[in-house]
Specification:
About 55% of the residues lie in helices and about 5% in strands.
């Protein structure tokens, strides 16, 4: 990865020892467009475009735009995108590598949300059924 170094001209009234005079900014040259990175991070986190839009507070159409058409990230939305995707803004921008994303199973989450809407007596039956399945799986795989 190539790194561009930006340095600003030293004002004539500064001395060699001034930190301001020696300040340099390292900006990595990321080859991957923002939209492609956003798409990969969204898919890796198990979110649909609609779900990401809801987390960020924008329309699904805007998510499509940022993923396909925009090569420049929406700076005012970067913190919200990063939080929704479980990454830092530096990782979202491609400055840092993404180590691991905690993957969410959105189908399972939607099912749990549906179960939570059920009346308590029905939730109890679902819970008992799930307990039997989990205990059976643990017994087969030697888990306690």
């Amino acid at each position: 990865m190539k790194t561009r170094i930006w340095s600003y001209p030293v004002p004539s009234n500064t001395t060699e020892g001034d930190n301001v005079a020696k300040r340099k900014y390292h900006i990595p040259n990321t080859q991957e467009p923002f939209g492609k990175r956003l798409t990969q991070l969204r898919k890796a986190s198990g979110l649909t475009q609609v779900e990401l839009a809801q987390h960020v507070g924008i329309s699904q159409r805007m998510v499509v735009y940022y993923e396909r058409e925009s090569s420049h990230p929406p700076t005012h939305l970067l913190p919200a995108f990063a939080k929704a995707l479980g990454v830092s803004t530096d990782q979202l921008l491609g400055i840092e590598k993404v180590k691991e994303i905690k993957r969410r199973d959105s189908r399972l989450r939607r099912r749990i949300e549906e179960i939570e809407k059920m009346p308590p007596s029905e939730r109890k039956h679902v819970s008992q059924y799930l307990d039997r399945i989990i205990n059976s799986w643990k017994a087969q795989h030697g888990k306690s």
